Structures are given as C-alpha cells and as structure tokens.
Amino acid sequence: MPATHFWQPSSLVVYIEYSDGTTEVKRGRNMGLEAGVQGLQFEANPLATFSLVYALEVPKEKLLAAYIQGYPEGTFRPNAPVTRGQLTSMLARFLTEGDIPVATTVSFADIRDDAIEVVKEKGLLTGTSATTFNPSAPMTRAQMATLVVRWMDRF
Predict the structure, then answer these.
(1) CB 77 within 8 A of CB 86
(2) H or E segment at 151?
(3) Helix or strand or coil: residue 74?
(4) Residue 2's pLDDT is what?
(5) Is residue 1 very low, low, confident or very high in pLDDT (cuts 50, 70, 90)?
(6) Which of 71, 141, 75, 83 is nearest to 116 (CA)?
(7) Residue 54: what are its φ and ψ, rounded to 5°?
(8) Buried b (16+ CB within 10 A) or exposed e, 32-63
(9) Distance CA 68, CA 10 (A)
(10) Which of 43, 68, 123, 126 is the most buried (most CB within 10 A)?
(11) Which pLDDT score is estimated for 36?
(12) Which of 14-18, 102-106, 150-154 comes out lowest in average pLDDT?
C-alpha cells in the first residue's frame, strides 16, 4: 500500500484494551494541530493500552482479536518489560486473528511453541542462535528495530 494512504488520519482506528480485559475499537476525531500537521483525538480510560490500526473500514460487529493479554492471575502490568516469548505471542495472535494454528515443526531446542513457529514462518523473528529462541529474554531495542523493518518489508 502506498505510504500516503497509511498516514491519513481517516484510515486509522484506535484499538483500546482496558485493564479488566475488555476491548473496543474507536475512530478518533481528526484535528489539525498546526499547518500541515494532523492529529487524532480519542478518549480512553487512563488504565488502558491502545494501538493505532490501519483500517479503511471497520465493521461495527467485528472487533479485533485481543492480541495483548494480561497475566494468568488477572494483572496486566503495563510497565513490565516484554520478553521475546511474550512479543511473539502478541504478534502471532495479531497475525492469526487470535487463532494460532498448531505447529507441525519445532525450530528451536529450548522451546516448542505454536506462536513462535507462526512468527518465524512469517520471517519476522529468528532465534538468538540456530537452535535457541530464548523466549524468557527481554526484547532488546536492536531486536525490536529489526522486527519493525521486517514487518514494514512484508506488510
């Protein structure tokens, strides 16, 4: 898609996930900040995380799958660092609309995980070595920058 379409405020929606696990998708209000600069204004509870999502049309009856989830004991921990495994799970949920397929291969000796196989197959993340994924390690800035470049090249 041409970059000129991506940055049009009218083609962006806000995906909001609240600390209680509920989600919603909103269209923000386009607003001019200064000459040649557009902004997107929306309201959300302060205990929410949000992402801007490119979408020309969002059917009212269809919400995006919740790709960022809290911890099993019910906490969200918005200030906690993100591990390689957690980020991989988020990406796999997003790429598969929350329906991660069962992997038929195992690429790494240190973990067998369907989400890791989905993201590896898309070419977005690799292991820290040929046989190790290291899912508990924090995601480094260099790894994140590499992921963003790969994402932009593929999508």
Answers:
(1) no
(2) helix 141-154
(3) coil
(4) 41
(5) very low
(6) 83
(7) -75, 125
(8) eeeeeeeebeeeeeeebebeeeeeeeeeeeee
(9) 24
(10) 68
(11) 72
(12) 14-18
* Residue 108 CB burial class (10 angstroms; 0-12, 13-18, ≥19): buried
Q: How far apart are CA 131 and CA 153, in angstroms?
A: 25
CA atoms in the 13 A half-sphere facing the CB of 136: 2
Q: What's the pLDDT tens digit per position in 130-155?
A: 999 999 999 999 999 999 999 999 87
For the record, the structure tokens of 53 come out as 């999502």
- For 53-94, write each residue's pLDDT tens digit: 776 665 555 555 678 888 888 888 888 899 999 999 999 998
The amino acid sitting at 21 is G
CA distance 66 to 151: 19
In this structure, which amino acid lies at residue 38? Q
Q: How far apart are the first and last CA of the chain?
A: 8
pTM for the complete prediction? 0.61
Token pair 């991989």 is found at 88
**Type and span of the H or E element at 6:** helix 3-6
